[in-house]
Amino acid sequence: MEQIRRKLCFLTVLLVLCSSTVLAACHDCDNPADGKVAEIVERGKLLVGTTGDYRPLSFCEADGTYWGFGIELAQEIARSLGVEIEFVKTSWPTLTADVLAEPQTFDMAIGGITITDARCETMLMSEGYLANGKTMMCRASDAGRFRSLADIDKPEVRVVVNPGGLNEKFANANLTHATIIVHQKNEEIPSLIAEGAADVMITEITEAPYYIKADPRLAAPLLREPFTHGKIGVLMRKGQDDLMEKVNHVIRRMKSDGSLRRLHEKYGLVYSL
After folding, report:
1. Three-class SS of residue 101?
2. How far is CA 152 from CA 12, 176, 180, in A?
3. Interval 148-154 mean pLDDT
């Protein structure tokens, strides 16, 4: 009888352990249903924050139509989730606050957002999908005049930046003698340079090629020798790891199947990831 009783006890313990394991496994399976991806799928729409002022990555036309490298990537992410997409206007000065806002105004942000340690400390950033770096743009007639930061950092040189982003921070940190002008609308700065209202625009290797191709009055003499090197990624708030994994999966797939390279070529950007 004692042997039978021990066997029954053993079977009871084994049954309890197995039941706990099954329940835990089921709970893990149910977790995704409570995540950000499930929320987006239930809503039927991916909300994407973007500045709409950063050709050729993210630009909003007067009629509200968005286009650009980042816009197409966001559309591909939405397609992978099986949902529609809606773009929500943000700005460089308010980007972090908008990402962290309560209630949440959009699910993720895209379009010229450089991956930095500071951003990764408080938010999530995807794998890089585009190489980036700080450079400068000037009038074509001044291309031989500006060959280094030292050439730019002089009191008589008027340097224009857009407010609130890394371009302004870079200029303030590295140009202590030049006259720095903050202009509110990023997309207007190249014309100011071309027309002589200022001398240099601090920009990035992702943005400069578009403008020098569109306007022969402009040049980017240090395009192949940027002041910094980095990568651009998708930004979102912490706690959305399931959505971040989906985003990274799309980026990896586009790298492996060649579609990311083709997107680089479409917008005249160098593929160096």
Report:
1. coil
2. 79, 10, 11
3. 97
Lowest-confidence region among 14-18, 177-181, 189-193, 217-221: 14-18
- 132: which residues sit within 8 A by CB, 6+ positions away? 112, 114, 204, 205, 206, 229, 230, 231, 232
Strand arrangement, sheet containing 66-67: 53-54, 58-60, 66-67
Gap between the Cα atoms of 155 and 152, Å rounded: 9
DSSP letter (8 states) at residue 114:
B
For 71, 89, 136, the CA distances from 110, given in Å and listed in that order, are 8, 11, 23
Q: Which residues pair with 219 in a beta bridge?
A: 138
Please say if the pLDDT value at position 26 is more than 70. no
One-letter amino acid at 52 equals: G
Q: Are 247 and 108 in contact (CB under 8 A)?
A: yes
* pTM of the complete model: 0.78
Residue 136's alpha-carbon distances to 61, 87, 117, in angstroms, are 25, 29, 23
CA distances (Å), origin 262, targets 54, 131, 206, 268 = 20, 15, 15, 10
Tell me if 128 sits within 8 A of 232, measured CB to CB. yes
What 3-state DSSP class applies to 10?
helix
Q: Which of 161, 27, 7 is nearest to 93 (CA)?
A: 161
Relative to beta strand 53-54, strand 218-219 is unpaired
